[in-house]
Specification:
4-carboxymuconolactone decarboxylase activity; EC 4.1.1.44; lyase; CMD-like
Length: 119
Amino acid sequence: MGKNIQAIKEVKGFLPRSVVYAEKISEDFGDGLAGFYKAVWAEREGGLSMKQKHLMVFAIACSNNNTESAVKILERLQKFGATRAEISDTMMMAAWTGGIQNFTDFSAAALKEMERLGF
């Protein structure tokens, strides 16, 4: 197991499916993909906070009508202290960029999960 794969596994407690699949193709490919994952989610001085990064990926998931990912990201947003107002603003921005039909499609599941998580 490559060093990046091991680092992701230790930090996250699991490996993203893409890393698992890449490693099955080639250990080097898996380690390279894990390195990309590690670089994207690294906290850097003066960079985006983990909450900001998750708000961004939530907006992208919503605007792409990827409801399953959007719902999963809500749990991460809760962990990083996002407020209901921040999530609502993000959903409205997703509606702006992705269109009202996508908003209609993802909002029911997202609102239900927000309720479950206590937002």
